[in-house]
Design a protein that fits this description.
The complex is a heterodimer of chains A (114) and B (252).
Chain A: E1 27-33, E2 41-47, H1 51-62, E3 70-75, H2 87-95
Antiparallel strand pairs in A: 1-2, 1-3
Chain B: H1 4-25, H2 34-62, H3 68-73, H4 84-87, H5 93-114, H6 120-148, H7 152-169, H8 177-184, H9 191-208, H10 231-246
Classes of the chains: A alpha+beta (114), B mainly alpha (252).
């Protein structure tokens, strides 16, 4: 995993620990496009030695019931994620601005789900 | 029976997939990693699905009112027509994948040719099965290369597996009167001719896996003719057929 080990005492040097699970295959995040026209959606993760095997494993783990037309995989440690600590700064300002949410329109039934 | 050769041929196809499918299913819950566990279980299910089609057709050709289930669960070892290689115990993961690869490389080429069969039913079954076999081959070939060209230990284990299994691979191409009559009728390809293509593709893959093909071409035989199975088939059937034998007609 990519997230740094949290330390309660940042100024105290951490002991050099052996990685706990050496030889483990890297983790891959899997995205599958269910139908043409839809976007790829994150469906889960799995372990694989390389990208090609990750695609094959994703085929076996996530698409056996005809779910997909396209698979993307990305090594989990290559994903840059927002930090939970930044939650307020990132998301709170939008809560008080209802005009940003397009909830004032009646959507005709023929449109289906949006 | 009207067409014993066709019946025998269909038993060979169906018993291969049944016995290998059962062997592969034995990994369920015990594979080295979760992803391989799921992939092996999927492979086993594909093979059992193909068995239903082959043995279903075999039962029709036999004309005794039996079903695919009757053929799978109520025959004894000497009536089975699978290759000896496929009834062998799984041993370790590398051995299982090497066996899978040697068979997949054969199975895929055979099914490709069977899609052109003069027998429509055979062609239809092959057309369905060949897509699954292509994926099985893709997967087992990649694993054989990864392990053969992996660490010193994985390389040694894969070479051991190849040395052990090579003498069982020859049976796939041994031709008897059933094969000759199927080839003459245009139902199935000439197996001896298939061997050249198989050897070519297997040599390329095994070379990529840095493995050495044994020079000895001796072939154990007796599985596909039913002349003499190994002791392992009886144990496999004892487990696979137990329920139907102990509780005849049981269903759910």
């Amino acid at each position: 995993m990519s997230s740094p080990t949290p330390s309660a005492y940042p100024d105290t040097p951490q002991p050099d620990r052996e990685p706990r699970r050496t030889g483990e295959w890297p983790l891959w995040e899997v995205f599958i496009r269910g139908q043409h026209g839809l976007s790829h959606r994150h469906v889960g993760s799995l372990h694989a030695p390389d990208a090609e095997m990750a695609i094959k494993n994703a085929r076996d783990v996530y698409t056996r019931r005809n779910e997909g037309v396209s698979i993307w995989v990305i090594e989990a440690e290559r994903v840059t994620a927002s930090s939970p600590g930044d939650k307020e700064a990132l998301y709170d300002p939008s809560n008080s601005k209802v005009y940003r949410h397009p909830t004032f329109f009646d959507i005709p039934d023929e449109i289906g789900h949006m | 029976m009207a067409d014993d050769a066709l019946f025998q041929f269909l038993l060979r196809m169906g018993d291969n997939t049944l016995v290998l499918g059962h062997r592969v299913s034995e990994w369920c819950g015990k594979a080295p990693v979760l992803e391989e566990d799921i992939a092996l279980a999927n492979t086993a299910l594909d093979l059992i699905g193909q068995t239903q089609m082959w043995l279903g057709y075999a039962a029709e050709v036999q004309g005794e009112g039996k079903t695919a289930d009757d053929l799978a669960f109520l025959r004894d070892a000497w009536d089975f027509r699978n290759l000896l290689m496929l009834e062998r115990p799984n041993l370790e993961f590398g051995h299982t994948m090497m066996r899978q690869y040697l068979f997949d490389a054969f199975h895929h080429q055979l099914l490709q040719r069977l899609t052109q069969s003069s027998d429509n039913r055979v062609a239809e079954i092959a057309a369905k099965a060949v897509k699954e076999a292509a994926y099985h081959l893709d997967r087992s070939a990649e694993t054989v290369v990864a392990l053969g060209d992996g660490t010193a230990e994985s390389h040694r284990r894969m070479q051991d597996a190849l040395d052990l299994l090579w003498s069982f691979s020859g049976e796939m191409f041994v031709t008897d009167e059933v094969d000759t009559s199927m080839a003459e009728a245009g139902i199935a390809p000439d197996l001896a001719a298939l061997r050249g293509d198989w050897l070519k593709s297997v040599t390329t893959t095994l070379h990529g896996a840095t493995l050495k093909i044994p020079e000895n071409d001796f072939a154990h035989t007796g599985g596909k003719t039913g002349r003499q199975h190994t002791e392992h088939l009886g144990h496999l059937l004892a487990q696979m057929q137990f329920l139907q034998r102990a509780y005849p007609g049981a269903s759910w």
